[in-house]
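Quality-control log, excerpt.
Job 1 of 2 completed; input and output follow.
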Amino acid sequence: MSEILTRSPFGALPSLVIQAAIYQAFYGFLRPTIKTDNVSVGSYIVRSLLDGFEGPQGYSQRFGLHYVDFGNSNRQRTPKKSAYLFNSIIENNGFTKRKSVKPKASSISWPPARKLAPLPASNVPSNAKVVWEKLSGQTAFERDMYQYATFSDDFKWGVSTSAYQVEGGWNADGKGPSTWDMFTKIPGNIENNNTGDIACDSYHQLDADLYMLKSLGVNSYRFSISWSRIFPTGQGTPSDKGVEYYNNLIDGLVANGISPMVTLFHFDLPQALEDLGGWEVDAVLNAFHNYADFCFKTFGDRVKFWMTFNQPHSIVTAGYGLGLFPPSVTEPGSAPYRVAHNLLKVHARVYHTYDENYRASQGGVISLSLNTEWVEPKDYTLQRDIEAADRYLQFALGWFAHPIFKNGDYPEAMKWQVGNKSALQGLPTSRLPVFTEEEKAYIQGTADVFSINIYTTKIVQHKTLRLTPASFENDIDIEASVNTNWPTTAVSIHRAVAWGTRRLLNWVKEEYGDVAIYITENGVATNSNPDYEDNARIFFYKTYIDEALKGLF
């Protein structure tokens, strides 16, 4: 559910051949980022542990290392060959036959929290354009050259899931409905009218999930908490059964030497809070803060890595602009900007609560998971295409990262674009809200690490788009495309382009300084047909991981 997904065929090759190949490619491209470019990459988290519910596409796409038989009432799980590959990479800590000693959860070290110093606003285009100058001129041979090396012994290897995608038990033990519970019950919203009512049934199969995690050999597991399982109406009295489930999960992880990485919000707002007005009203923002505070107090003695939001860009664009995610608002010119403004402010509030009340005793770190595609200028020697590529990244990533990791405010490119379009539309003020100086100071520095979800690459060029209707998409003034020679996946907008990973990680370093970067989600989808060989996914992971490793040293 990380993107607005549409299904497409793999082409001539069998889907598992493609998938294994694609995973191989991703691993391969991660390594150069670490080894060659001196980028601080601390984790690689695979999406996902097992096949699950994939948003509007239902169960028609499979991201898992384990095949789930959704036609079987027991939701039988079977490892794909990519699971064995990932286990081998973890055991060797990379791509050489070297025995590594994996740390137990009690000894896994997260980077020490440090207040990030303010950075000046980004230029237009950003100085990070040096990444295109440095790497876009590579020959295909130079770009794709495979390297054999290993990661540092404290590298975090993990897999991910999210509550609605795997838990099921949608109304079990007093759980309240979430927006996704209600959204999926409207005919036509989801392919084949699928729902996550049962999903993988992880709520009732905790031991099976823990067994898979232990067998993989991961030292980290990223999952989300279902807010309405803890607080059925989003606030008030917590559910003992809901708390018990997450305590059992966390205790099971720690007992098996696996460090929990917890996302507080992964798209599933309690429906009772949406009925109050959702992310646009103070009552819901206050409820989120109180829910986060409860989680810190209840689970923080064992959870040392927290993320407030998963992909806030997707929350605001898919939920409030395009209407493809709940709450299905289609107000693309202003609602995404208003809601993003609120998310940034409540994220900062939650960060400060953890920092002031829990960090000293619990010793954890807190961030949020951002996302973007890498983008290549159509002509990297043409200034307007360089500016278009930079503008894309500022709208996709800088929208949330620039306030937190730079100066507490939106990128200059974004402020100018939205402000100029608003003026041309005859509006008295910009559709992009304004932070007060006090709010800027409060938001700046409210993340301990840079968490990012990475999938694919696009090609962009400048194009002046229409003024009406007002839209966050039209505000950017770019045209995006892909190279048709890039391998396809079951997600039509996700071409498998491993080398984009290295370039994106380099751009983050150049743009936001020497902050520790954690890849909190990466994966590839195949179609719904059973395919245990999983060769395409294997290729994907090998090449993507190798590309990240190129930049470590």
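Job 2 of 2 completed; input and output follow.
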Amino acid sequence: MKNNPESGIFHTINQAERSSRDTLESIGQRFAFPVHEKIRNMSEDETLKVSAESQDKISKKDLVRVALQSLQTAWEKTIEPQINEIRQKAIDKSELKQGTDFATKVDIEGENTIKEIFINAFQDQLNIAGEEHEAHQGKVGSDITVRIDPIDGTESMKFGKPDWGIMVGIYKGQPANEQQIASAVFYPERKKILLNVEGQGIFTTDLETNIAQEIKPVQEQNELTEMIVQFYENIEERPNDQTFADLKGQLTTRQARLRSSPASCIDVLEAIETNGKRAMIINGGYKTVDFIPHAGLEKLGYKLYNWQGQELKADSQELTDQRIIIVPPGKAGQDIIEMCKNIQ
């Protein structure tokens, strides 16, 4: 009887060899985390011009390196040392307001840590924009922009859930026509990395096994009953929104399973891990940085629409505070779009 090389001890050996290779080669190339061989094999000579007026160029591979390093440093130096205090203040009624303020303080510190890493690496060549600070740093007018969300899923993080992440997106062009060229999300308590690099692909790294894998396009989804629809209700800005309540009612009637979104980065990760069995409905309130991970999801077959059914791009500046639908290929997604169009 022949042994199946993908089962038992042979599978274990293959996994161990792959883990060792991904780890050692990534360390040798100064990546903060294990990355896929396609990333390791990127040419150092693949560069981006800083601006039309400048002859300065930056290696795309270096941008990916620094992005991953900034996520690791933000977690290890800024967020992790204070996370227990954040959580204690969040559940202590006498410190409830202080807990919220302290989480915001750590959010800002995490953002500043990431900015410092990029500035130290590239001086003033980049335009750097964060979630907490509206003012941009670095080179105004640069054709390379870094966008930062230091804690996506603050409420999850505060109350001890692993459903949050640290996000960085890198874009080329000016705001009117920006295009994402790379994004990285670190899920510290899920021990995962999600990486999207233009021209290379979308990858995840499991930090428990140290194995990086490339993600293939998701499957078509034709049955609403086989999906979970994640929704962001935006209660603060749109309390008692009857339109949204009616939409949820229609989805429930169609036997779709509904769940409140813990964080945009978690929605994207679960969409990938379930091979497309997630859709997202956003009732406004998202900022540009909240869509950092969705550009990679687009490459896997997902599409973004407003509630009127107009297709949008994940790296567009037009998404801020819009009502957005994000669906996989297939009839189920089209059904959701039609519901949103007809309910307004």
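Post-run check on job 2. The mean pLDDT is 92.
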